[in-house]
Amino acid sequence: EYMGTLDLLRCPRSKGLLAPAMSTASKLPFKVVFCSGESESYPVSELEIHTPHTKGWRTPRFCDYPQEIGVAFDSIVRLRKVQLYSHQYLIATKIELFVGNVPKTAAPTYANARFQRLGYLSLDSNKRTEFSARELKSVHIDAIGQFLKLVVHKCHVNKYNLYNQVGLIAINCLGGPVAF
Predict the structure, then answer these.
(1) 5-19, 120-134, 161-175 — which is least confidently predicted?
(2) Three-state SS at 48
(3) Residue 23: is its pLDDT beyond 60?
(4) 29 contact partners, CB below 8 Å, separation of at least 6
(5) What does DSSP assign to residue 59?
(6) Exposed, middle or buried: residue 94 (CB in 10 Å: 0-12, 13-18, 19+)?
(7) Of the candidates 123, 110, 111, which has an alpha carbon nearest to the alpha carbon of residue 152?
């Protein structure tokens, strides 16, 4: 199932608009608990930090695809919106989203989670902007879980992506706690 809306953001040197905030959901803190690969200079831990100086995450050079990123929330949450901010030329062709929960009899770890596929996002090759715009994908969902898994598929090939990498500048999750 395809999901998402397309918003193109200009690089910091030009003006861009951010997606509007949701009034009923708040930013969900998370920790990256799994990554199948990362560039030494652009570790996945960068996705946990949201500042103007954040460099973001990159896959290793010439890696095998798909790559996987797993994040854990502080508790079981109702996930309402996921935002992915893509690099301007290290662009994935597709990113799949999964939400995960752990059976009551198992320890609450990413490895023990059972994941349900929510859908996928297709990203623009960015050729028409001459690779000067970053893409913000905003996906409205309604899912309950303690984990979010991103499966990052192969990159768009272009003259700037010399090492066949994918880069994400930021991940933002919005929602709220689940009351039992």
Answers:
(1) 5-19
(2) helix
(3) no
(4) 73, 74
(5) P
(6) middle
(7) 123
